[in-house]
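[SOLVED] Need 3D model of a two-part complex

Original post:
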Amino acid sequence: QQQVKQSPQSLIVQKGGISIINCAYENTAFDYFPWYQQFPGKGPALLIAIRPDVSEKKEGRFTISFNKSAKQFSLHIMDSQPGDSATYFCAATSSGNTPLVFGKGTRLSVIA
Amino acid sequence: GAVVSQHPSWVICKSGTSVKIECRSLDFQATTMFWYRQFPKQSLMLMATSNEGSKATYEQGVEKDKFLINHASLTLSTLTVTSAHPEDSSFYICSASTGARETQYFGPGTRLLVL
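Solution:
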């Protein structure tokens, strides 16, 4: 499987700050890039997703930035809150019912 | 939004027994379902891809005779862990896709503990 590299492995952000998680991919056939949020003992929940035809997508406090030439994409969480503390996974896939390739995850802790 | 359920949410069984986990798409028809396992503090590892009415496609290293997958309808897929052993203890998560888009919706997971 082609890899998706995610960093950092863990992140501590103060309440109200910006959390930034980065991912890089290798397979140029990937054309769908979702981010998932997972709380302990729960399944991943789709947070936001982007396709290569746009460079940025914003939904509330969550923004994905996408750089096609660099094969990188990132998640920005604005005004981070303690309730955002979770593990975040980036993923990628190509068109059709092909499996998602996941990054290794980032454990985010937002402290007051 | 699309909802995927799993049953049971947790199960404890004795070594050597078999355990069946159900994955259901509640408000949409899932042409494809995926099964993952996740160890503590690790990412999701794809086990197999299941298309309705056909045999599952297993990832390299996943024993198809041990992890039996059935996708008999557009809303139900089952994973049976046969002759379970303590090393099979893990968090098993399914996801479902409509096929029209790449979005996968995940179930809440099933925690399996084999004693």
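Edit: The first strand of chain B starts at residue 4 and ends at 7.
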